[in-house]
Specification:
Number of helices: 8
GO molecular function, one term: protein kinase activity
Strand content: under 5%
GO cellular component, one term: cytosol
GO biological process, one term: positive regulation of JNK cascade
Largest sheet: none
Organism: Muntiacus reevesi (Reeves' muntjac)
CATH architecture: Orthogonal Bundle
Helix content: 40-55%
Number of strands: 0
Structural class: mainly alpha
CATH class: Mainly Alpha
Protein name: Protein kinase domain-containing protein
CATH topology: Transferase(Phosphotransferase), domain 1
Length: 162
């Protein structure tokens, strides 16, 4: 928010929440503890709470990137109208969320579909996603920043009207 409002166009911001971070084991690269912010939580993370014998790996972060992309595109994460416990139930049992607007590029929609694969064993890794055409085709960062600025300005204006 600071970078956007102060017009530092070359500021690189990272989206992190170390309050809910966890280290993935180097031995097998998996976790089985339930930790995270409900609306961004991958189904496999929620599943670990229901069955402690299950585990998940770093691909849960790819799901969270998809949720964050939906939030950036629509101004709010999916299911934010639900209570956190209700959201956890829906994430686990319903189909994966999608971007509501069809006004986004096919590459963005494909990127989102890959991020939102419910079975994490079939979800691409973050390294794979970095090679996705949606990410690879970003040649002019200035153009991306201007597009985001225009889009975020629209979202801010909508929120101010409410």
């Amino acid at each position: 928010r600071y970078g956007y409002h102060t017009k530092y166009l070359h500021l690189i911001q990272k989206i992190l929440d170390f309050g809910v971070s966890a280290q993935v084991s180097r031995i097998n690269g998996r976790r089985n503890s339930f930790i995270g912010t409900p609306y961004w939580m991958a189904p496999e993370v929620i599943d670990c709470d229901e069955d402690p014998r299950r585990s998940y790996d770093y691909r849960s972060d790819v799901w969270s990137v998809g949720i964050t992309a939906i939030e950036m595109a629509e101004g709010a994460p999916p299911l934010c109208n639900l209570q956190p416990l209700e959201a956890l139930f829906v994430i686990l049992r319903e189909s994966a969320p999608k971007v509501k607007s069809s006004g986004w590029s096919r590459k963005f929609h494909d990127f989102m579909e890959k991020c939102m694969i419910k079975n994490f064993l079939f979800r691409p890794t973050s390294a794979n996603m970095l090679h996705h055409p949606f990410v690879q085709n970003i040649k002019n960062e200035g153009h991306v920043v201007e597009s985001l600025k225009k889009h975020l300005t629209g979202i801010i204006k909508k929120r101010q009207k409410k």
